[in-house]
Each structure stands twice: as structure tokens, then as C-alpha cells.
Design goal:
two-stranded antiparallel sheet, 7 helices, 207 residues, alpha/beta, globular
Length: 207
């Protein structure tokens, strides 16, 4: 019997923490932090937290960086653990390291890692990837037409290795490439659209 089969749904929710990377400064968006871009009447960071909770993550850690105080003031993030990343300008890797470090000692056995600038990926896709959790050695990723994307499930056994290779804007990319044979791909192309909000042209995706 696997660890996952022995647990209730609520217990799995406690074991798999949501980790939202929301520190980016939106350099190609004229310096507008992505966390505060409006989508369906709410900041993107709220939208992403809601999706993680809809996916069953009882614990959600949110990594903040650019204009962190404005995000705290303007976004409803009650119940989330807010993690400040003073090195956010160094890229996504620093936020991933900060987020994984914040989960150490919490009892979480895996992190469901999501990006704040992908509002086309909602709770349904996140729940599918979360369901791939078995134990702390689990490693899974959403796939779109067979191509690996977000979110990514990192069992706690992979956190140290991921943090050691997370530099610049690569995030977990280097670690996942090294461990590609271990990754369970979870097809989500039928329920999500994996676009990024990176440039002014991408703002058409916001509603």
C-alpha cells in the first residue's frame, strides 16, 4: 500500500502544500508586478491561491518580492503563509529556494509549485497533478499535448536537490531535466491553457 492510499483526502491536503511563486516584477510589462495584475476582478495572486485551494491544498505558501507591501495590502491572502524573497530580482530560482525553505519543518511531504502568471491553469489541472502524490519521493508535472509544464509536484525528497540547482530564471528546470525518467506526466491539455503573462501582448488573456 502506498502512503497516499493509506491517507484520507484531508490528510493528503495537509501533506501536499501549495507553493505559489508570485515575486516577479513584470520587467517586460513596464514594471508592473504580475501578482497585482487584474483578472476577473481580482489580483492574479488571489486567483492563483483560489485555484490551489480548489485543488485541495489546505496549506498555501506564497512567495512575494516586487512591491510585496502593496501585494499584502491589496490582495486577500488570508490563511496563506507569505514568504518574502529579498532576492527576487535574481529570478525565479531564488523564489523557489525561498518557498521550499519555508516549507521545511511544516510537516508537508510535497509541494505543488505554481506560477502566478498562468491564470489559464485552474484548480482542475492542479488537482490532477496533486493526485499524483504518493509519498515524499513523488515527482510529477502537468503536461500539455505531452509537453511538460506547470504545475509541478515536488516530493520533499527532491527539495534539497531542486534548491541546489535553482538559479536565475530556471526554477526547477535543471533538476527536472536530470530526473526526467522519474517524472509522472499528468495530461491537462483538456482542462487548462498554459499561457504566460509575460508581455503587453499577453494581457489579452486577462478578463
Amino acid at each position: 500500500m502506498t502512503d497516499n492510499e493509506a491517507l484520507t483526502e484531508d490528510q493528503v491536503g495537509d501533506r501536499v502544500a501549495g507553493l505559489l511563486l508570485a515575486a516577479g516584477g513584470g520587467r517586460r510589462l513596464g514594471g508592473r508586478p504580475k501578482a497585482l495584475l487584474e483578472h476577473r476582478g481580482h489580483p492574479l495572486v488571489e486567483h492563483a491561491v483560489g485555484a490551489l485551494r480548489a485543488a485541495g491544498c489546505a496549506r498555501v505558501h506564497v512567495v512575494l518580492g516586487a512591491r510585496a507591501e502593496d501585494v499584502r495590502a491589496r490582495a486577500a491572502l488570508d490563511g496563506c503563509v507569505l514568504v518574502d524573497n529579498p532576492d527576487w530580482e535574481q529570478g525565479m530560482g531564488s523564489s523557489l529556494r525561498a518557498g521550499l525553505h519555508s516549507l521545511t519543518g511544516t510537516g508537508a511531504r510535497a509541494a505543488l509549485v505554481c506560477l502566478v502568471d498562468q491564470p489559464g491553469i485552474g484548480g482542475q489541472a492542479m488537482a490532477r497533478v496533486r493526485a499524483a502524490y504518493r509519498d515524499e519521493t513523488s515527482l510529477a508535472s502537468a503536461a500539455y499535448g505531452g509537453v511538460r509544464g506547470h504545475p509541478v509536484l515536488l516530493g520533499a525528497a527532491h527539495w534539497a536537490g531542486t534548491a541546489a540547482t535553482a538559479t536565475g530564471d530556471r526554477g526547477a528546470r535543471a533538476y527536472l531535466r536530470e530526473h526526467e525518467a522519474e517524472i509522472a506526466l499528468v495530461e491537462c491539455g483538456d482542462v487548462a491553457r498554459p499561457y504566460d503573462i509575460d508581455t503587453e501582448a499577453d494581457l489579452v488573456h486577462l478578463e
